[in-house]
Design brief:
Elements: H1 2-17, E1 24-40, E2 51-66, E3 69-75, E4 83-89, E5 92-98, E6 105-111, E7 118-133, E8 137-152, E9 157-171, E10 177-186, E11 193-206, E12 212-228, H2 234-257
Antiparallel strand pairs: 1-6, 1-8, 2-3, 2-7, 4-5, 5-6, 7-12, 8-11, 9-10, 9-12
Length: 258
């Protein structure tokens, strides 16, 4: 009887102790190794293809919403300048950065119970490039995407984790648009861990005899949302009840044996 009781108490402590443990999620996204090139649509006309960079605007943003905190951080580094912003709260943290190279942006976010019963933390790094294309010029853009999302879940806790990288090209009127997106997800019915590594290439053609403006947008986004359920899940409650019932039967059997 004493051995059984000690064993059951130990099991009960382990089950209840699991509620003090926490789930955690991590997301990251980056665009790197970006290159720009041109193709000549009319190689026999004697005019060389080309482009000029009119402006390069970077914006970095991090946000945190938790039960006891609501913070934001932003930064706007100039063209060809590195920059970074970051936020932290307990074990949760987020950062957004750029190396200063055209198109190179990255983000990171990790979150757990330090976000409170329902909180979110994330970061976005964006860069907008504005070009002027020479007549009969194709602007070609290539680079590398990397996204990742992972989570560790426990009873009574839920996580949504997203890592996303995006590149898009649009003309001055918004009539012509092309984009490339890669994302990693870890929530609901998705796997607990996902990683995407991919190269990309996009192109935009100025087939006219006039110079033409075009814009290219790069964005990396990482986000973790944490939700805690205040009551044990039914399966855990069932285990506890079954254990209590088993102990009661064991006690009754021992008393009859006496």
């Amino acid at each position: 009887m004493a051995v059984f009781l000690r064993s059951f108490i130990a099991t009960l402590i382990l089950l209840l102790g699991s509620f003090s443990a926490t789930a955690a999620g991590t997301a990251s996204a980056s665009i790197s190794n970006v290159h720009f090139g041109t193709l000549d649509l009319t190689p026999d006309d004697g005019a060389a293809p080309g482009y000029g960079v009119l402006s390069a605007d970077s914006s970095l943003f991090a946000s945190l919403y938790a039960a006891t905190a609501d913070y934001y951080a932003s930064g706007y580094p100039g063209a060809n300048r590195p920059g970074a912003v970051q936020l932290g709260h307990g074990a949760s943290a987020a950062s957004a950065l750029t190396s200063g190279a055209l198109g190179n942006v990255a983000t990171f976010a990790t979150g757990d119970a330090s976000l409170g019963d329902h909180g979110t933390i994330g970061a976005t790094a964006s860069q907008a490039l504005h070009f002027m294309l020479q007549p009969h010029t194709v602007l070609a853009i290539s680079g590398h995407f990397a996204t990742a999302a992972s989570r560790s879940s426990l009873p009574g806790e839920y996580l949504e984790v997203v890592g996303m990288a995006y590149v898009g090209i649009v003309d001055e009127h918004g009539d012509t648009f092309t984009q490339f997106v890669r994302q990693s997800l870890a929530y609901a019915d998705w796997p607990d861990r996902m990683t995407v590594e991919d190269d990309f290439m996009l192109a935009f053609a100025n087939g006219s005899a006039e110079m033409r403006p075009v814009s290219v947008y790069f964005q990396a986004l990482s986000n973790v949302t944490y939700v805690a359920t205040p009551v044990p899940e039914p399966s855990v409650l069932g285990m506890l009840c079954a254990g209590l019932l088993l102990m009661g039967r064991r006690v009754a059997t021992c008393r009859r044996a006496r």
